[in-house]
């Protein structure tokens, strides 16, 4: 009996996934456990293994198709086997959604209906730049009409150095950021904070420690943020329908840049963990995140996020985009020596830029400023982080 290839559940929070690149083609022999197809969520890309030995008889969901967990992607069986029963339902998309439109790769074969091709040529539209929503990404007349109305598909003849498809993680990050920007009444507070205390504490802690055990500034900042939330949980909130909920757990998301976009692994219950444990988790999650080895559960459940651009040495302050359903995010800029007034005298101190963005629908400027003041006190007097 033929074996269906179903959209796997890659994490507790996963409801849908998008079919990525098929690593095998129809007619290829496959072994159980062999990498078969890539599946993309809004967080990660995973390779799905073959559930059985046999022949890949049918690819029922082409690249770009969005499916619910359990949705049919294809079928494996013996050569010549009848798989009509397995494929009867066909590829099922989430809700009433159509498969995600995907523009054809430059120079690749384009699937387009005769009517759509004629309409595109009459309107001088480069149909290879249009996403097709028909079966297996076929471009329909409706796709071309939509492209004409939106001004999409007009060829850009400017010389380029590189062309890459807007899909997978890059598309997911882009769509999530746009949704956050347009869906939140965002306000950002900017401030500089004296890092002398934290840098001195870090130096003391790391004296004589092995390189792999040395505490990072990021770990100390994470503990400071978690402690500030313990003292004043005003930023640890979320909007759930008609209710504003203050969350009990303090789970700190750590934004990590990866080649295809951005991921946010989570340090759960950061306030309850020792500094060394937080330090180890940050290093481990960042390393595995950059090699696409995190699972979905490790990137869900954050209640507050930190995004750190300080290592690039080029940014003092910026406007970080809130990571829904969180209500606030802290942007960390570079630490640089600057003149500061201490005890009535001008001295040089290592100053770091902080940018707190928050959703003004549920968090006002004054309480956000109060929370930021707590964080500043902890950073400038780091011994209080552990009290």
List the helices and strands and how they pair.
Elements: E1 3-6, E2 16-22, E3 29-30, E4 35-40, E5 45-49, E6 54-59, E7 66-68, E8 72-77, H1 84-87, E9 102-103, H2 114-122, E10 131-132, H3 141-150, H4 168-183, E11 186-194, H5 196-206, H6 217-231, E12 237-240, E13 243-246, E14 252-254, E15 256-258, E16 261-263, E17 266-267, H7 275-290, E18 304-308, E19 328-342, E20 345-359, H8 365-380
Parallel strand pairs: 14-18, 18-19
Antiparallel strand pairs: 1-8, 2-4, 2-7, 3-6, 4-5, 6-8, 9-10, 11-20, 12-13, 14-17, 15-16, 19-20
Question: How would you characterize this protein structure?
Answer:
The structure is a single chain. The protein is an alpha+beta fold. The chain has three domains: 3-87, RNA polymerase II/Efflux pump adaptor protein, barrel-sandwich hybrid domain (OB fold (Dihydrolipoamide Acetyltransferase, E2P), Beta Barrel); 102-164, Dihydrolipoamide Transferase; 170-386, Chloramphenicol Acetyltransferase. Helix content is 25%, strand content 27%. The chain has eight helices and 20 strands. The strands form six sheets. The protein has a six-stranded mixed β-sheet with strand order 11-20-19-18-14-17, with helices on one face. It has a four-stranded antiparallel β-sheet with strand order 1-8-6-3, with no helix packed on it. A four-stranded antiparallel β-sheet has the order 5-4-2-7, with no helix packed on it. Helix 6 (217-231) packs across helix 7 (275-290). The N and C termini lie far apart (64 Å).
């Amino acid at each position: 009996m033929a074996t269906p290839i179903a959209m796997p559940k890659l994490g507790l929070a996963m409801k849908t996934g998008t079919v990525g690149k098929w690593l095998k083609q129809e007619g290829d022999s496959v072994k159980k456990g062999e990498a078969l197809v890539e599946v993309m969520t809004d967080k990660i890309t995973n390779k799905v293994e073959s559930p059985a030995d046999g022949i890949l008889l049918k690819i029922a969901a082409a690249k770009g198709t969005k499916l619910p967990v359990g949705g049919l992607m294809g079928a494996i069986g013996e050569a010549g086997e009848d798989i009509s029963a397995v494929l009867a339902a066909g590829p099922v998309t989430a809700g009433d959604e159509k498969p995600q439109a995907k523009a054809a790769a430059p120079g690749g074969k384009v699937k387009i209906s005769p009517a759509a091709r004629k309409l595109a040529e009459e309107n001088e539209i480069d149909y290879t730049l249009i996403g097709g929503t028909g079966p297996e990404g076929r471009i329909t007349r409706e796709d071309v009409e939509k492209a004409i109305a939106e001004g999409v598909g007009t060829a850009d003849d400017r010389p380029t150095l590189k062309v890459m498809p807007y899909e997978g993680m890059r598309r997911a990050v882009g769509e999530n950021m746009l949704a956050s920007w347009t869906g939140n009444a965002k306000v950002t507070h900017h401030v500089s904070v004296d890092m002398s205390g934290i840098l001195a504490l870090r130096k003391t802690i790391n004296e004589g420690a092995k390189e792999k055990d040395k505490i990072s500034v990021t770990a100390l900042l994470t503990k400071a943020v978690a402690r500030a939330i313990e003292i004043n949980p005003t930023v640890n909130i979320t909007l759930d329908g008609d209710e504003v909920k203050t969350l009990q757990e303090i789970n700190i998301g750590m934004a990590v840049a990866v080649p295809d976009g951005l991921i946010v692994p989570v340090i759960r219950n950061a306030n309850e963990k020792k500094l060394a444990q937080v330090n180890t988790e940050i290093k481990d999650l960042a390393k595995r995140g950059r090699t696409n080895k995190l699972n979905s559960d490790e990137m869900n459940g954050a209640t507050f996020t930190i995004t750190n651009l300080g290592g690039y040495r080029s940014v003092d302050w910026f406007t970080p985009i809130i990571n829904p359903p969180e209500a606030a995010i802290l942007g960390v800029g570079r630490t640089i020596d600057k003149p500061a007034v201490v005890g009535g005298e001008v001295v040089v101190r290592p100053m770091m830029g902080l940018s707190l963005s928050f959703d003004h629908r549920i968090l006002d400027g004054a309480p956000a400023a109060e929370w930021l003041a707590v964080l500043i006190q902890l950073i400038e007097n780091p011994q209080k982080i552990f009290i």
